[in-house]
Design brief:
By secondary structure, the chain is of the alpha+beta class. The protein has 9 helices and 12 strands. The strands form 3 sheets. Strands 8-7-11-10-9-12 form a 6-stranded mixed β-sheet, sandwiched between helices. Strand 10 and strand 11 form a beta hairpin. Helix 1 packs across helix 5, helix 2 runs antiparallel to helix 5 and helix 5 packs across helix 6. 39% of the residues are buried. The N terminus is likely disordered.
Length: 284
Amino acid sequence: MNQHINDVRETASPDAQTLRGTLAVLRAIEDQCARGPALLRFEGAGDVLVTHGALCWASARGMRQRMSDLLRYKCNPPLEREFLTEVLQRCRRERTPLGDALLATGKVTESGLRSALANQVTDAIARIGMKESQLTARENLARAEYDERFTFSPAEIFAALGARRDPAGAVVARRRLQWAFDGTGGCGFAFFAEGSRDHTVALAVTRECSLAIQQMVVLARWAREILRVEGFLEPSRLVVAKVDDWTALVAWSREGVIFAGRVPLDSVEHLASTVDGEPRRQTQ
């Protein structure tokens, strides 16, 4: 029987200071991603490898064995250290990507590998954020040869960190996002309804979410405010705000979680029927 990496979730819940620091780091990374492949160095805290619009890898001081531990102990049964060492040596010798080599063994699944990588990157970004370290150097790279399947948008990492406050709730929120946004051509995210207008803790995003971190923060502020103004009780119906002739903002809430996003205007009716099956209320 093949060994599969389980869906990895950390139990440690980030505090407000960590979330603020991580948000600042992710904003800095997001700005750098747009400039192409590079190695970003955060003073005294760690390094982040980025490509166009995504994070490929991140490491923080004091966590050298983190990825090895994830790969070894999050499998059932655990992978042997000798096995990982052998695969790593072969990758270096043949100059092949580690992910491809692990998948080729049949002992690691694609989803499991992505889960382990996401945890590695999220942990590293959180550690860098805890130290409130500043970006001090950028080393441009001719190219970053990383499989797109194993890269992560800043929005994904933002949500992955917040999801540690409520792992089970994050799973439910992710499923609800999929159910609502699939087929609309839009994207969205879920965040905890509690908190102030300037403190957003995301816990899930749609696949290939194209929202920038600052857009998520602004959209969360709007969604929290409009749901309060409209006086909606749990569970709320869908609120829609037309942006232009092609785009609309949407928001609704379920069980202490607010869902918000951006969709094509002609997808609103479909989204409304999916969310609540009732006529929507629209704001100008």
